[in-house]
Write the structure tokens for this entry.
Amino acid sequence: MTECIREQEVLELMRSGRADEDLRAHIAACSICADVAIVAATLLDDRTALVRNAEVPGSGLVWWRMQLRARNESAAAARRSLTATHIAIVGFAVVIALTSLAAQSTDWVQHLVAVAGAVPFAVLMAVLAAWLALAPVAAWLAFSKD
């Protein structure tokens, strides 16, 4: 015989420690259930010893680790946002560069600028270049701790 239908009951008895005389008599008579009881008792003893000897870190260390993890997760989220922003900025720069190259042959951008308030095209490009140069610096200043 390789298994017994009362093995699960034996495990429950070992876990709970309840006194069931009928099941204890079965364990004494059934070699399979006796083996299950021995193994379960050994495992429960090991568990009890491990729980007693477990070293629980201090609350200060747990708090510090929690703060460190939160800071690292926040920094990772900021890096993802910055990466997305940089990709968008480069995309816009490419679109504007291609548009300005196309506009030199058709002059429609300069006409649009003249209608919008007579702002020279060179001024718009200088503002865009300054914005592209200063955006990463502003993001770095916003996310740095110092």
Notes: Helices lie at 7-16, 21-29, 31-53, 59-106, 108-117, 121-143. The chain has two domains: 7-53, 75-143. The chain is about 85% helix and 0% strand.
